[in-house]
Diaminopimelate decarboxylase (Flavobacterium terrae), 401 residues
Amino acid sequence: METQQLLQIANEFGAPIYVYDAHKIESQYHRLTSAFSKVEKLRINYAVKALSNISILKLFKQLGSGLDTVSIQEVQLGLRAGFSPESIIYTPNGVSMDEIEEVAALGAQINIDNLSILEQFGAKHPKTPVCIRINPHVMAGGNSNISVGHIDSKFGISIHQLPHILRIVENTGMHINGIHMHTGSDILDIEVFLYAAEILFDTAKHFKELDFIDFGSGFKVPYKKGDIETNVEELGRKLTKRFLAFEKEYGRELTLAFEPGKFLVSEAGFFLAKVNVVKQTTSTVFAGIDSGFNHLIRPMFYGSEHYIENITHPKGKERFYSVVGYICETDTFATNRRIAEIKEGDILSFRNAGAYCFSMSSNYNSRYKPAEVLWKDGKAHLIRQKENFNDLLLNQIELEF
């Protein structure tokens, strides 16, 4: 999106605000499908947790995507957005059997990552097709909080517990129709991913009625100029060749599935915030904005970097600023960052704000969550209103003393 378009949205709807570029979402989706164009049956399941606004889900439905969900609420959002149950895969972790059975009743594809749950579900619902999430014990991911395939991860059933899985399947007579893995986010080394894929292929040989193999996602996107990213085109060439060879070995056509979230929406997102104060201390110049980690927690939580631009005066002389929020504790977005000279009232734009930004926002300090806008076909479409005081009181019960 152009700077003037972002400023126009900030002026029309106010700041802070989240803006999503539909064209970028579409181009990322087509980039991934093009990389695997030689696979006859390809399924892209958008990871709802990255950005769950229902209008965004409808956009993905229009593109032909399925959904990757981790809660019954995400399944229900998908159904509300018009997705068929069979186009939704449900991969929970640590949830109750009651929730899994509720989702199964809705018709979504169940994906189980726990031996105990697998045995319980198989005993009660042997005819319901189930996918199994394998932990390949392969470390991938740019941060320990988003590396989920290593040996000490809570996710997946250890590959070394395959004999237990086979015993449960044989004893219950349950139908296993898919095998799944997810090593973590921000994957850079394609060879590590391909090594994990070989583990999944070897596992798949033990199940004779598979419909699909799901390789998760975790593709890295660039966060700053010159940053490295996952080469999905190279991955497409190498994994496609191996997948097609495995199909022949397996003896039937399979669906190749991925579950991208960040890859599809991160770069499409912009977070716009107004500068309230410029404050100089003995060693630092702070730019304090009308937001905080209640709206954008990733820098504090993950140490993630978001490129910050002064879109009010983009060509001004660059100075060093620490960009901070208004939350009443340490609340830092960037330290000693080179940004075009900032004045009070300027609008700052945070890039890569499409994934895990609004979806992780909160009402901490009793602040309102911001509005969301989708920029599509040259127009700004409001897809979530900014909260108001009544929203803070919603579902609270006031006692009279």
